[in-house]
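tokens incoming
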């Protein structure tokens, strides 16, 4: 049987990169997104619409004939803009429904845990900023905390740290061979 991989959230930042990488490695990809037009067009990529992740959900049309699932769909960049119950339906209940419906039908389901990544980045950023505060205090004594260079350089430095915290794990993840990551135990 040809390995067919379902990727939800295929039009997102990570999804696009994964669809491209798996397609180049010869996998048949079923790429799902709210708007399939945002998914790359390739001969071995089947672009499909993902169902609304709020409410009762039937994943069976997307799971039909699939050997592996990589679930990347969810809401990560809109804290506080949705009611908590809707946010939980999209990011928790829909994932549980997918896992239940995929059980026994696919070899492996890979779930992206956005919250863990965000918390790890936040924790690392706080520790690094505390270390930088100490280092900067040793070398820049007598500089007031509210002068213009300090107020502009500190946010720029923290923005750079956040960018590195986001890009480095993605680059590492893209170097992992999909055939090794998705093989059945």
């Amino acid at each position: 049987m040809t390995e067919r991989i379902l990727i939800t959230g295929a039009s997102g930042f990570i999804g696009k990169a994964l669809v491209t990488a798996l397609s180049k490695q010869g996998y048949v990809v079923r790429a799902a997104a709210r708007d399939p037009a945002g998914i790359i067009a390739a001969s071995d990529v089947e672009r499909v619409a993902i169902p609304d992740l709020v409410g009762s959900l039937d994943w069976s049309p997307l799971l039909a004939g699939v050997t592996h699932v990589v679930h990347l769909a969810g809401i990560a960049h809109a804290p506080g803009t949705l009611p908590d119950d809707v946010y939980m339906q999209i990011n928790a209940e829909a994932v549980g429904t997918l896992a239940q419906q995929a059980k026994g039908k696919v070899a492996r389901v890979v779930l992206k845990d956005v919250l863990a990544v965000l918390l790890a980045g936040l924790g690392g950023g706080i520790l690094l900023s505390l270390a930088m505060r100490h280092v900067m205090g040793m070398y820049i004594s007598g500089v007031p905390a509210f002068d213009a260079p300090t107020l502009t350089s500190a946010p720029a430095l923290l923005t750079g740290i956040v960018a590195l915290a986001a890009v480095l794990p993605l680059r590492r993840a893209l170097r992992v061979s999909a055939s090794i990551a998705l093989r059945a135990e």
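note: The chain has two domains: 4-112, 115-165.
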